[in-house]
Design a protein that fits this description.
elongated
């Protein structure tokens, strides 16, 4: 599956191409050199959160979409994707409340080992 840098880079490249942008155009929109976009896309550089937020805005994506690495053909992957989407719309305190409520319930379930 690759490192985080590689997975993120592939996502950026895929969305950039789908948006019809060149690396140079994306670089201009986010205020960096085209080489920076190239390094991100090849996975040789993990961008700062600030830069990746600018990239997601330029690509017209919610920030969390760049960090979706689940297999959406797998039921667990789809469930994780839905959970990430839901959580991305909550505030920090709301996420903490959700965890405080859900974690004890899940801990009490009699689940078979994975």
């Amino acid at each position: 599956m690759g490192t985080l840098e590689q997975q993120l880079g592939m996502k950026v490249a895929r969305h950039r191409k789908a948006s019809g942008l060149t690396q140079a155009q994306l670089a201009e929109e986010v205020g960096v050199q085209p080489e920076t976009i190239s390094r991100i896309e090849t996975g040789s550089r993990l961008p700062s959160l600030d830069l990746i937020a600018k990239v997601s805005t330029a690509l017209k994506l919610d920030l969390h979409e760049l960090f979706r690495f689940q297999d959406l053909d797998d039921p667990q992957g789809r469930a994780i994707d839905r959970l990430l989407w839901f959580a991305s719309r909550l505030s920090g305190p709301e996420i903490e409340l959700m965890m405080d409520v859900v974690a004890p319930v899940l801990a009490d379930l009699d689940r078979p080992p994975r």
